[in-house]
């Protein structure tokens, strides 16, 4: 690569590292950007780059650190995230650079971890495009996501989730509650986008399913999350998710978490009933207006 190209890559790396430092230590001044922004890149390009980095940080927020920094450990962590529905079939994983930062590892190690996932048929790596999830939960009907509407999905959730949260209040460990809290903190991030909210919402509800400690319930909810990641919902989310509706949903999320931590099963059921009824009414209104 010629010298200008190397300088451009260095500038981009500096902006990304500054963004990460600001996320970790928000009270510290970013002296490098403050003193010489013109030498790094135009202010418009810097803002666009940092906006993209912020969106990627939303993606990575719920990815806990593996027990070690080996490629195998990272592959295991990413595999679990895919299995839990954090990343669904057809979704692109964060870039190697973002994964390396989030997992406190090197890009070379992350690249090996992604190769392990590819060998396991969980992802497909496309040169110039990125790494895409190819895992689909086992089901008797491979086309169930194709034929299930968002409203039908909510109806299934209404049938399943009240009992799911009741089981979670009985069986959740402190570690389970911490995972639910981490997902909730991601959902409550200021200015969260509809795409990031949808992804973090899947993580939040899957964490509750995991807290039931019931393998069948966990598997059932993974299938629900698989359907939630389908393009029918992706086409609908921009119509139903806005700043006001996200704030309302998060009030329910916070109330649900508080009920789970208090081991109040009746309150947890009341909150999830209200939460899903609001989602059903909103979807019905959008469908009726189209």
Principal-axes geometry comes out as globular
Q: Strand sequence of the main sheet, in spatial order?
A: 1-2
The CATH fourth-level homologous superfamily of the largest domain: GntR ligand-binding domain-like
Task: Give the CATH class of the largest domain.
Answer: Mainly Alpha
Unreliable segments of 5+ consecutive residues: 1-59
Largest sheet: 2 strands, antiparallel
The CATH topology of the largest domain comes to Four Helix Bundle (Hemerythrin (Met), subunit A)
Task: Please give the CATH architecture of the largest domain.
Answer: Up-down Bundle
| Helix-strand sequence | HHHHHHHEEHHHHHHHH
Task: Supply database-style keywords.
single chain; 290 residues; mainly alpha; Arc Repressor Mutant, subunit A; Four Helix Bundle (Hemerythrin (Met), subunit A); two-stranded antiparallel ribbon; 2 strands; globular
Give your account of this protein's structure.
By secondary structure, this protein is mainly alpha-helical. It has 3 domains: 58 residues, no CATH class; 63 residues, Arc Repressor Mutant, subunit A (Orthogonal Bundle), CATH 1.10.10; 146 residues, Four Helix Bundle (Hemerythrin (Met), subunit A) (Up-down Bundle), CATH 1.20.120.530. It is 72% helix and 3% strand. Strand 1 and strand 2 form a beta hairpin. Helix 6 crosses helix 7. The longest helix has 25 residues. The radius of gyration is 20 Å and the shape is globular.
């Amino acid at each position: 690569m010629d010298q200008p190209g190397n300088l451009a890559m260095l500038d981009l790396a500096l902006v990304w590292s500054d963004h990460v430092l600001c996320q970790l230590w928000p009270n510290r001044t970013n002296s490098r950007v403050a003193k010489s922004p013109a030498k790094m890149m135009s202010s418009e390009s810097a803002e666009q780059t940092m906006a993209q980095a912020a969106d990627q940080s939303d993606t990575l927020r719920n990815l806990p650190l593996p027990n070690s920094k080996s490629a195998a450990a990272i592959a295991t962590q990413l595999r679990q995230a895919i299995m839990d529905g954090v990343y669904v079939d057809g979704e692109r994983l964060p870039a190697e650079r973002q994964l390396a930062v989030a997992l406190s590892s090197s890009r070379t190690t992350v690249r090996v971890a992604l190769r392990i996932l590819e060998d396991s048929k969980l992802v497909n790596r496309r040169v110039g495009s990125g790494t895409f999830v190819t895992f689909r939960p086992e089901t008797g009907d491979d086309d169930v996501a194709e034929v299930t509407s968002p409203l039908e999905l909510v109806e299934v959730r209404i049938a399943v989730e009240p009992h799911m949260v009741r089981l979670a209040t009985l069986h959740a460990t402190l570690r389970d509650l911490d995972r639910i809290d981490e997902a909730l903190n991601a959902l409550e991030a200021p200015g969260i986008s509809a795409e990031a909210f949808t992804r973090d919402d899947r993580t939040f509800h899957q964490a509750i399913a995991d807290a039931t400690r019931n393998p069948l319930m966990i598997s059932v909810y993974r299938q629900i999350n698989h359907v939630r990641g389908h393009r029918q919902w992706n086409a609908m989310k921009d119509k139903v998710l806005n700043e006001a509706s996200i704030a309302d949903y998060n009030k329910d999320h916070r109330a649900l978490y508080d009920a789970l931590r208090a081991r109040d099963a009746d309150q947890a059921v009341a909150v999830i009933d209200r939460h899903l009824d609001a989602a059903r009414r909103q979807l019905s209104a959008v469908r009726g207006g189209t």
